[in-house]
Amino acid sequence: MRHVATALAVVAALVAGLWFFSGVVAPGYDSAIALGVGWFVVVGALTTLVARRRPDLRLAARGAFVVCAVAAVAGFLTSVRETTVDERIETGRPASSLTEDERREALPADPLAPQP
Q: Residue 75: which region, alpha, beta or left (left: phi > 0; alpha: psi -120 to 50)?
């Protein structure tokens, strides 16, 4: 039971920290990557300390860390390599084909112009 609890604690720490530091704290894409890697380094060091102090939990702690690290790297690589864009692009009529009335309706009114 301790092995399962240890593995779940490592996974929970990695997921919660990754979400917090990369998703909430980081202001941009590059900083999110840097903070996520930093969090994995911190949890990896703590996992090593647990493995040294409790040899019976070594496999559970390190195994959970390695599985999460592999999953994070796989997720990162799929986000970087994706090159297909699947979105609809809205198109309209060229402005030169509009009538004078349609142009007046389509153009925004000048907010600084005198009001009628």
A: alpha
